[in-house]
Design brief:
Length: about 120
């Protein structure tokens, strides 16, 4: 199943939902759209809700770091991510650690409630 995405401004955050096959090619398009919607709405809090049917290879996590830098996703953003497919968690934990170690935004959470709590809480990583 090809990946689909819905990115909407929700007043106090951007909701970025995605479903389907994930790859670095898909991520480049997806995150480019997220950056565009953030800029249009001057809102840099992002809640990502994902259901991956095909998991992105773990080593592409390094490509996500480069992609975030290329797109200008920096500490002015706050990104909370939830993935419903347990098979994708290992890759996303790797990406979470790679972003964290480079002081880039993007944290993985078990559920939307935890993600929202962090997203709208203090500014700590």
């Amino acid at each position: 199943m090809t990946a689909t995405a819905t990115i909407t401004f929700e007043g106090d955050h951007i909701r970025a939902e995605s479903r389907g096959e994930k790859s670095i090619v898909w991520a480049r398009e997806f995150w480019g759209e997220v950056v565009e919607v953030c800029g249009e709405n001057d809102c840099y809090n992002v809640l990502g809700i994902s259901e991956s049917t095909t998991v992105m290879p773990i080593l592409e996590g390094f490509d996500i770091v480069a992609l975030f830098r290329e797109l200008g996703i920096d500490t002015s953003y706050r990104i909370a991510w939830v993935e419903s497919n347990p098979d994708a968690i290992k890759t996303l934990r790797f990406i979470d650690a790679a972003l964290f170690n480079r002081m880039l935004p993007g944290r993985l959470f078990k559920n939307e409630e935890e993600a929202r709590k962090w997203l709208f809480g203090g500014r700590g990583y």
